Amino acid sequence: MKYQGEKIQTLGIEVLVIPRQAKKIVIKAQPVLSYDEFDQICKSPVAPMIIKANGEQFTDLNDKQYNGLLELYSKKRMAWMFLKSLQASEDLEFETVDFKNPDTWINYEKEMKEFFSVAEYVMIQRLVLSACGLNMEKIEEATKNFIAGQGKETKSQ
Questions:
Q1: Which range of residues forms the domain containing residue 36?
Q2: By 3-state DSSP, what share of the chain in percent is helix, strand and coil, each rounded to 5?
Q3: Model pTM?
């Protein structure tokens, strides 16, 4: 795909360095450009069907079991994104997370909170979100710069 005739480069790897006494912990986050791998491993839950006496059918989106499965699915999806992004950190190893087993993905949060302070963990979360293009501060800054540039172009024309 092109924008204004040019191929746009993908987002780059974001880096965070956390000082720890004599060591520096380097955390890298890469953009997650596709969820195809996630979709193959972890299927979205399907709401149960309700069939009325007259034969009319519709999905029961208020089913408690379905909503519980949907909430778990959403947590796994977020965990997968986080883990996939952090794969850029070659030296980072999770002890209770198996990338092939979706039931272990949510363990990343417990491990992170045991290893990092709350402030460090929040910085890592922001790093991942930023790498994946979900940094509202950058988007707002780019929008502001674009609008300011539009004003200059209008005055000079």
A1: 11-149
A2: 50, 15, 35
A3: 0.76
